[in-house]
Amino acid sequence: MFKRLLSLIPAALLAISVSAPARAESGFAAFIRGGQKPIVHGNHASDKSPIPRQKVRFTDVMEPGVIVIDTSERRLYYTLGNGKALKYAVGVGREGFQWSGTDRISRKAEWPGWTPPAVMRARVLREEGRKLPAYVPGGKNNPLGARAMYIGGRIYRIHGTNQPWTLGQAMSSGCIRMANDDVIELYNKAGVGTKVIVRQ
Asked: N or C terminus: which one in the chain shows less Cβ crowding within 10 Å?
């Protein structure tokens, strides 16, 4: 009997290690998810989009190397020229946080830190009773994900997310969210100065 109990210990330990999360989720990641369950692959939050990127025909902008964000479609296009573009699923601004215009990428950052604007911190405290920090360092639990591309002098960015269930939805505060895998690919293609067109 004792030997049989000993033989069961490794299996029990394995079950505990599999069911336990790889890393405790931060309150900031939970805030970004809005109470929804995260998408996971095994014990890890997914970096992949549930909506695969595609190479498509796109003739709205013929110039290569332009980012076109269609907020109503919730898709981002990166033009390749010759009537072709790469099409990515994105998350966009919710009602009251939508915007449009033309600008350029002014800065890029890998694993960026997040500094919530004072107006956002005040709004979240007032509406949700949550106190956001003044600064969150870059990393897996940072809401900006693996990469960020800053749009002109605006407060908005094209950035990653480790919660790709938000893609294809309108629930951000105006920023454009992409899966980490997708934003890394776009980051490597689009340099500072890249034109960005946001349309509704």
From this structure: N
